[in-house]
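hey so u asked for the seq, here:
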Amino acid sequence: MFLQRNRDRLLILGLVFSLSWTPVSAQDASWKVGLAEAKITPDMPVVLSGYGGRTKPFEKVAADLFVKVMVLEDGNGQRGVIVTSDLLGFPAAVAEPICERITKKTGIKREQILLNSSHTHAGPAISLRSVPKDSPGEAQRTIEYTRQLQDKVVEVVVQATKRMEPATLAHGSGVIHFAMNRREFTTDRIILGVNPRGLADRSVPVLRIDGADGKVRAILFGAATHGTTLGADNYQLCGDYAGFAQAYVQEKHLKVQAMFMLGCAGDSNPYPRGTMEMTKTHGKTLGEEVCRVLQTKLRPVTGPLRIAFAKTELPLQTLPREKVEALAKDKRHPQNYAAGQMLAVLDKGDKLPTHYACPLTVWQFGKDLTLVGMSGEVVVDYVSLLEKTLGPNQLWIAGYCNDVFGYLPSARVLSEGGYETRGLYSGGIGVFDPAAERVVVETVRDLAKKAGRQLP
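ran it, structure tokens below
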């Protein structure tokens, strides 16, 4: 919960839970859970994603990368699939074919599938098309790796559906302190830097899944800061802090599947950052906090599971050609890349798109927990915006779900400027209009109401 919405105050956001707690016995379990995972570390020299200045493939594997799956089924047979991954993010062109294949193989509908990525900047690029800056060989290896990745995600989901076992669910929340707002205000512009007074979501939501024997089977946890502890000079593969946090939790809880789901991290970086040692330290810090939360009295999560999903049309800015040309010439402007794409469309005599279809989803777990899955690189403002419209309690907000198309800025961020206003960089062309904020919030509220959350 925000202490205050003023950006000049340091904010610590957290999920707020009731102090009352009633243990749930295995005999009372109405859930079934299936788990599976697969290593997705590239076995070929592919380029890394996240930083445009890299000029060569990775050189070393510092830690393996994984895709992990949790299939949840309530007492009525309603299923939901959560896929987490040590990747920068699934663009729609990669995600939607995966979901279509899962549906064909399992019967699970598209709206029941949530894909999330840790947004590590030390992972492989994924794409099904050639990228101009890559050599033909590099582009082909990226495409080949992406196809292999799609196959593995589908296979792991199918495996998980075949391993359904009785389970109980419980949740709680902790806090980390290395999430730092990165929108640093200078005399003439906003840079990617360090802003201790800026907004940051430091909550650590945790979902524990116990088997019929009462032992922990899986732990789903989150945080909300970029996977950028390592910079553009890094050529070692790893899941950044989130990957090391999962490894830490699994070391402390043997035979448990630890899964990480990224939150509204669009305008946050780890602090400090820059070395592999810092990456491991942040991972240990997060892992220790998750383990601490697991020792507290968690709140039981009951069913039914109700899922509401929509692809809502978010408005894009309508810019005159003169403005687009000016932005395309200004190499320092965050919207330079988007403007270049827009100018190419105009030069062909085509019209610019006016909207972008953004997937949004709400999962309602009985009356105990609401999970909001947002697409894109979501800035932290949406935490307070959704807390206000949905109520702050029993609320888990995740970003980077289903389609990482670019940044999803708030109206405030758009008015201030800065890197997070850069627009669409995957699967779309344009820059979001400030009215997109209202559309997002209203859509999420409608979905939450449909899913059964009690609204204020």
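Residues 136-161 form the longest helix (26 residues). Residues 308 and 446 are 9 Å apart (CA to CA).
lmk if thats what u needed
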